[in-house]
Amino acid sequence: MLSIKKYAAIDIGSNAVRLLISTITEPDHKPVTFKKTSLVRVPIRLGQDVFTKSYISDENTERMIDTMKAFSLLMKSHRIEAYRACATSAMRDAKNGVAIADKIAKECKIDIDIIDGSDEAAMIAATDLHTLVDNNKTYLYVDVGGGSTEFTLFSEGKTIASKSFKLGTVRILNHTISEEEWLDAEKWIKAVTKPYSRIEMVGSGGNINNIFKSSNKKMGKPLSYFYLSSYYQLLNSLTYEERISELSLNEDRADVIIPATKIYLSAMKWSRSKSVHVPKIGLVDGIIKSLYQNSKS
């Protein structure tokens, strides 16, 4: 018997809010498949408020409520069976984050889980990553967000270490990151990767996906350190307006892409990685996987 279910995942990030609706098909005696039916992204940039003023503004609170009402209607139209909404760094750090989550629960009928960095890293690691990596190799997985970056070291198919740092693109743009945070990340990556002679990197997040798309490489082919470094130099040589007009970047991508590239390049340097794989997975995919696993338990 063929089983078809629809689940939804909401990722409330520091730069954008996303809704993924996924169709899960379970055929008899065949592997389960996960198909992205719909992906909606709204660039609210909550981190702009939180990392400079510690509060989410009234204007962005209203935008959040409007967005969640729209997401609620989309989920209803798609007739989803289950959903989970997770908020990360910005909502976590906002002094009014819990109050806004309560307001959204009342007005939009969407319950939001404000998760910590370790939960975020674990959920991303629960994605299809194991099917994309070689169990005989060692990988540093780097997920760059607006408020934080999650690093996870995998070796021989197992998670060796995982840590979240407040190295977020929106934080960097707002100059709210101390030099100590960079040094802590550098020390941690160098320490966990030291026992391994060869490390490959896996990158996730909207910025690395965008860079990969612009490279015109085939899916499965990694980006080299040299390519990423050259692209970083190109980005820095252009003005914000030129990055929009010449590289066809969205307005909310044209500024954060520079600090994001700096984080990926730094992680490659510290881990001695010469290439980065870009499998196009993220927190929303991890949420869908966790919903599916919970339905089975």
Protein described:
This protein is globular. Helix 8 packs parallel to helix 12 and helix 10 (225-237) runs antiparallel to helix 12 (257-271). The mean pLDDT is 92. Helices cover 47% and strands 24% of the residues. The two termini are 20 Å apart. 43% of the residues are buried. Strand 1 (3-12) and strand 2 (17-26) form a beta hairpin. It has a 6-stranded mixed sheet with strand order 8-7-6-9-11-10, with helices on both faces. The chain has a 5-stranded mixed sheet with strand order 3-2-1-4-5, sandwiched between helices. The protein contains 13 helices and 11 strands. The longest helix has 21 residues, at 58-78. The protein is an alpha/beta fold. It has helices at 46-53, 58-78, 89-93, 97-108, 117-125, 129-132, 169-173, 179-193, 206-215, 225-237, 240-247, 257-271, 283-296; strands spanning 3-12, 17-26, 33-42, 82-87, 112-114, 138-144, 149-155, 158-165, 200-204, 223-224, 275-277.
